[in-house]
Every structure is written in structure tokens, then in C-alpha cells.
Amino acid sequence: MQTKLVSAIEAATNTLIGYAISVAIGQIVYPIFGYPITLRDNAALTAIFVGASLIRSYTFRRLFSQWLNRVITRWILKLKAWYANCLKKLGDSKIEWQNWKRSIWP
User: Fold this and answer.
1) How far apart are CA 68 and CA 71, in angstroms?
2) 62-69 contacts: CB < 8 A, separation 24 or more?
């Protein structure tokens, strides 16, 4: 699982690269659609969208990270319960345990 700092660094790097690409594309696309724009105005307008993108990216990454952690934890708990149940069904017989273990674990 990523730390908050690593999530923030990844989101910021991704967003800054996107910012540079968006400014370059804006200089081409805005005039094509009839919106003459200076590089300064384009950079400012793009910065607004980049700020929103950075917040969105970081927020969803953290939410997803927490959600994934909960899902994996639940899955591990279910697996442990299943494993304990299988051991209970096998009883104390070492021979049965070894045969069972070989049959499910390659």
C-alpha cells in the first residue's frame, strides 16, 4: 500500500506532466476553435484545471487505497476461516494433513 507522501508525489508528477501537455495543446486548439489566447492566459486557465485534477487524483488514490486495503483484509480473514475449518475437518491426523496439503498446494 502506498504512503500518503508517495501518493501525493505520484499525483503531482502526473499532473505536472499533464499541465505541460495541456498548455501546449491549448496553444494549438484554442485558436482553431476561434479563441485567440495568449500563452499567459492559457497557462493560467490550464493551472485552474490542473489544480482540480491534482486534488481529484490524490483523493481518489487515497480512497481507492483504503478500499483495497479493506477488501484484501476481508479476503484474508475469510481465507483464514476457511483454512481453520479445513484443519478442523481433518482432525489431528498428520497423515491426512500431509495428503490434503499436497493435494491443494502444488
Assistant:
1) 5
2) 62/4, 62/7, 65/1, 65/2, 65/7, 68/1, 69/1
- Do 32 and 4 form a contact (C-beta atoms < 8 A)? no
Calculate the CA 96 to chain-centre distance: 42
Q: Please tell me the predicted confidence (pLDDT) of residue 90.
A: 67
Residues 6+ apart with CB under 8 A from 8: 58
Q: Which three cell numbers stand for residue 88?
A: 478442523
Per this entry, what is the length of the chain? 106
Give the model's confidence band at 11: pLDDT under 50 very low, under 70 low, under 90 confident, else very high: confident
pLDDT digits (tens, 9 = 90+) for 31-83: 999 999 999 999 999 999 888 877 887 888 788 877 887 888 888 888 888 87
> What pTM, to 2 d.p., does this model score?
0.50
Burial 45-66 (b: 16+ CB within 10 A, else e): ebeeebeebbeebbeebeeeee
